[in-house]
Design brief:
This protein has seven helices and five strands, in the order H-E-H-E-E-H-E-H-H-E-H-H. It is α+β, with helices and mostly antiparallel strands. Among the domains are: 81-162 and 228-235, Alpha-Beta Plaits, CATH 3.30.70; 165-225. The chain has a five-stranded mixed beta sheet. The chain starts with a helix and ends with a helix.
């Protein structure tokens, strides 16, 4: 009996020792897993941070592209100014054609356009002429200065017209009509019957006609505001002005009186032309009435 009790006691002690060792192993294993989790967490945080950084940089890039697009729109819809200048120059005798050739060279060097010219060379009298150029807006002032130096400057007339609002308004209308065109094109693709196709095509033709009209107006404004117009009046000493305007108050008064007399004579002539047929008709009527009122001669029977 004592031996049996001793064996049971030894077995119980052995079980307690084994349970303690297993508990220590479990606690050690738990510590290892916690350490592993502590090592994994920073790596996950770092990955999340690396993913967040591009996400944070994306709005900045988007904002930069938006600003660039806004700048492009501002440049495209900049001020549209139409500028025109008429310059009067007096050159030496026999220098008309040479001056026009020099002016053409100056404009071509500035990438301008020669539009046309007209000259008058009367027999035995000083010559005069007019030449028209189109020059880029940026080169307007430099070219104008060079042209003024080709002869004796006698004055100029210039005008400036701001068409920016009109240009922006036409752009807005054109964008609206193009959007409507896209709608009709989609409807045309979805049309299933001939009636629907014809109806959509009729509307589409009207829309496209408005688009062409607006695009033509925009092209004209772009051309007028991109290239300025310079009209150069060149005359030799003693030549008549391009418009034939008299110099001096008395000469202008005499010209006005002569013009007024011509207008009055023209009015009288028109009145005569209109009244003459009426007078002829009235004369014929009077002659007829007089013929009817004349007494008839007595017949031979009544005399007997």
């Amino acid at each position: 009996m004592r031996l049996g009790r001793a064996a049971v006691g030894v077995a119980l002690v052995a079980m307690v020792i084994v349970a303690g060792c297993s508990a220590d192993g479990d606690s050690g294993g738990g510590g290892g897993s916690a350490g592993g989790e502590a090592q994994v967490a920073p790596a996950a945080d770092q990955a999340a941070t690396e993913q967040d950084q591009p996400a944070q940089a994306a709005p900045a890039g988007k904002a930069g592209s938006t600003d660039a697009a806004a700048q492009v729109r501002l440049v495209d819809l900049g001020n549209r100014i139409v500028r025109t200048a008429n310059v009067d120059l007096e050159v030496g005798e026999g220098r008309l054609n040479a001056t026009i050739n020099q002016a053409t060279d100056v404009v071509r060097q500035a990438k301008g356009i020669y539009v046309g010219s007209s000259t008058s060379v009367p027999s035995g009298e000083p010559a005069s002429g007019q030449v028209t150029f189109r020059v880029p807006v940026d080169a307007f002032e430099p070219v104008l200065r060079e042209l003024k130096g080709l002869g004796t400057y006698r004055g100029e007339k210039s005008s400036t017209e701001d068409v920016t609002n009109q240009y922006i308004d036409l752009n807005g209308q054109l964008a609206a009509w193009r959007a409507q065109e896209r709608v009709y094109l989609r409807l045309l693709d979805r049309a299933r019957s001939v009636t629907d196709v014809i109806a959509v095509q009729n509307q589409l033709q009207q829309v496209q006609s408005n688009i062409e009209r607006l695009q033509g107006q925009l092209n004209y404004l772009e051309d007028q505001s991109s290239f300025s117009t310079i009209v150069l009046q060149v005359s030799e000493p003693g030549a008549a002005g391009p418009a034939g305007e008299p110099a001096g108050r008395l000469a202008r008064a005499w010209a006005t009186a002569v013009n007024g007399l011509g207008v009055m004579a023209a009015a009288v002539l028109v009145g005569v032309v209109w009244v003459t047929p009426l007078l002829v008709v009235a004369g014929l009527v009077l002659l007829g009435l007089r013929a009817l009122r004349r007494p008839r001669p007595a017949s031979s029977s009544s005399r007997a």
